[in-house]
From TrEMBL, chain A:
Assigned keywords, A-Z: Signal, Sugar transport, Transport
Signal peptide region: 1-23
Ribosomal protein as UniProt keyword: no
Stated name of the protein: Multiple sugar transport system substrate-binding protein
Keyword presence, Transport: yes
Automatic annotation (TrEMBL), chain B:
Organism of derivation: Goodfellowiella coeruleoviolacea
GO cellular component, one term: plasma membrane
Keyword Transmembrane helix: yes
Membrane topology: Multi-pass membrane protein
Main location: membrane
Protein name: Multiple sugar transport system permease protein
Amino acid sequence: MSPISRRAVLGGALAVGAASALAGCSAGAGLADDGRSLRYWDLFTGGDGATMRAMLDAFRAEHPEIDLEAVTLQWGPTYYTKLAMAGAGGRAPDVAVLHLARLPGYAPAGLLDPFDPDLLAEFDLTEENFPAAVWQRAQYNGQVYAIPLDTHPYVMYYNVDVCREAGLLDADDQLIPLRGPDAVLAAFTAAKQVTGAYGLVTETYGTDGVNPWRMWWTLYRQLGGELLTPDGRDLAIDDAKALRALTFMQQLTSSGAAIREADGSGSIALFSSGQAGFMWQGDWEVTTLLASGVPFSMTRFPAVFDNASAQADGHSLVLPHRRTRSPAQARATYQLIAFLLRHSVTWAEGGHVPAYQPVARSAEYRALRPQSLYASVVEELALDPPVWFAGSASTLWLEMGAALSPVLTGRATPAEGLAAAKAAVRRLLATPNPVQ
Amino acid sequence: MAPHPARTQPTRRRDWSGLLFVLPFLAFFALFLVWPLVLGLGTSLTDTTLAKDGQFVGLANFGEALDDPVVWSSLWHTLLFTLLSTPLLVLVGLVFALLVHHLTPARWLWRLSFFAPYLLPSSAVSLIFVWIFQPDFGMADGALAALGLTPEIGWLSDPAVAMFSIVLATTWWTVGFNFLLYLAALQAIPDTYHEAAALDGAGGWRRLWTITLPLLRRTTGLIVVLQILASLKVFDQIYQMTAGGPEQSTRPVLLYVYQAGFTNFRIGYASAISYVFLGLVLVVALVQLRLFRSPEEAA
């Protein structure tokens, strides 16, 4: 029996390692293009992640001939970095999720491929099946670049027990709509007297940091304000309107109607433990709150000013740029997209308003409570201006959140907050567009 | 510590086996450090973005970086973090090591409890401290309230306080490393020195000042160098505890590099900022080298 020398073993191990490293490099090179395997990327974790996995599993069950590989990446800038690089390399996944407001940062740079109108028509993914405002934002240069999956507006959560005790509910246990700044402040103050702790909780600072932007953009759009000129080149903030919105925001916290300092997870913890009457947040906390057992319902963001607009973005499905895409591969891709849209009532359970109108109008969706109670907001969406630096997890949101947060925490006056916000937008406007 | 000139030279025989031993490391060093360093410098001279390869733009990115107020403010935040955290991490490490060295009962327990946090990943530490620092119902406010104090400190929400809170969390998290180095150095000091001094009538404090601390000087030098370099690299815990806020008051320069490169897609510009930072770190390293070399050479 010949003893195996240590050197031989080490040499062998090294060779195996090198070989597998090389294999790793080449694994992505040969992209499947025969429509038999699909690669899909998203950024959904938590409740949304579980729902999406269930929907993908349903697709696999219905289409056993297609091998679907789904990859979930971390939400935020990290996801968008990877998506951009994949598109730039031309060897991207077949289909990916993109926030609709991020489209102006992706389509003009050639990071995405346009959809084929004939195939879209074949799968019923056409204009009349989507809300007009949302469909319009899915276009670039006269071509369709995104298929909207949902809209996720900024909404108002309320604790049913607290609001009933405060006399804010009607006979059907629904919140009596609040109109005007005084009614809103009075309702939160009444709720605060019931809880003995907080009226409204909402994120006023923290790592997410975006909520002050969502709140301001909602209120400012309710006054009809614009952020940029129509061509997206210059600042168009109306100082009087902006200050009215900011003054109301400061009034909320300084009067004690709303919590002065809370981060995102803190405000959710307070609301889900029954210590607050109301919460302002995106629609995606439904799953968390249902699990917490707190008696809550949801409604549209109140019409504090002239209309009931609410800040919103939405998820859409896009085709990251690939150098080649065979007809068979395209067909399989459209099949997956159409499947996800047709089954988006499952998706809506997570709180998002389905963009696909056959689903949004269905009895099944309307029966979802509280998820369908704010669906009418799609007629009054406050979407981001269509510029490269806007959209979910964008620099605009982070910078505006940072500029406006001190107005809520009471560390800056509305005028100071506005000056900081304008400086931030001016800096972004002066930054060379990296995608054109 | 230059070699003595009078020392006899060993027989000059070219032996390449030494080189062979370091070759694997040299290859990795060249491939993963030197080459990216050169590539990055090249990128910093272009307007490359994540979406496209850039054109050569000369020193335009560096000009923009030097003109960008955010570069300067974020550099200051990195420096502030280093100035606050370094003395604290060195001193607390030393004090803990002295305590543990003299606390004989259950010494393993003290050693473990001071070192254990160092083993946690940054995400766990950040999560723990974000909850500890919650306004009103956080543990920090709770502890103060138990003492009858309600100072309403905005731990992570007040721009004047947030950096101190991050330094506090960082100290809890990483002091274990300095503590361990000090403890090892303490245990290497021969007992005979202390015995002799005690016989001569030196008390505990006297021995600390004239025996222990001077003998720890080399360790202190090493710890200070390592700590300054580690503090200048701060990113993880700030990204996860405040994301640079409130009001960008804690945004370190590396976070700005990340935002410029990965949120705003401007790889060329982000590279330029990181080379400005590299230049400053090199200056700090050279100054340190001078400061810490002279006393030892004199000795």
